[in-house]
Amino acid sequence: xxxxxxxxxxxxxxxxxxxxxxxxxxxxxxxxxxxxxxxxxxxxxxxxxxxxxxxxxxxxxxxxxxxxxxxxxxxxxxxxxxxxxxxxxxxxxxxxxxxxxxxxxxxxxxxxxxxxxxxxxxxxxxxxxxxxxxxxxxxxxxxxxxxxxxxxxxxxxxxxxxxxxxxxxxxxxxxxxxxxxxxxxxxxxxxxxxxxxxxxxxxxxxxxxxxxxxxxxxxxxxxxxxxxxxxxxxxxxxxxxxxxxxxxxxxxxxxxxxxxxxxxxxxxxxxxxxx
Length: 275
Description:
Blueprint: E1 3-4, H1 18-24, H2 30-40, E2 47-51, H3 57-62, E3 68-73, H4 76-88, E4 94-98, E5 113-117, H5 125-134, E6 148-153, H6 164-177, E7 182-183, E8 186-187, H7 195-200, E9 205-212, E10 215-219, H8 220-228, H9 241-255, E11 260-264, E12 267-273
Parallel strand pairs: 1-4, 2-3, 2-5, 3-4, 5-6
Antiparallel strand pairs: 6-12, 7-8, 9-12, 10-11
Helix pairs in contact: 1-8, 6-9
């Protein structure tokens, strides 16, 4: 069951993209979770709050490290997938709630750790950092244990990848969808502060930035599936699917005739601690 924190939400951002999201989005490597576990000395105690939980990747992976897990996301379709997967894995310690990270309140209780996986860019960052900090409680932890936040970002994608094949694909996307990156019914705004700067201006202390190298191997078909999982290249944006896919295939194969591509996707993990 999904518990609603908000009366309504416009779910158009990933409308129609969820099946592609499940099948084609890269998963985080084990090194990401190991970093979080070791940095906060996770030992099965306390509660986890996973904001922008999506289909539940982070919450499900870290469930064993906590007594209870709360996953919150505004998209009901994402949450339905998360529920199905938690039932499949018999993950009984997770509660899923529909709502916005900006709207969390004291009714949720206190937590040992807050996580945000590949969703921070959709949020009102200062508000989420302030509200999440208020939900942390480290008073019951030992000196070796820590309370705080872990934010996982994959900051490099087709729009910032300078490899030949990626630039060829981006040319096709711009041809079909325009020069500005789409986000639902609008485009991505220009940003003037980095995530690190925003974190350093938040209540969190001892801010750390870690980079984990990660590579993803794609075929032509899996990369097209990945594109349809994104908010900037949803399938319903395309006026002529066969023609678009033909353009993508031609662009990819012009760079790599084998049809197999390796993408470097460095993962940035920001850690912040509660004093």
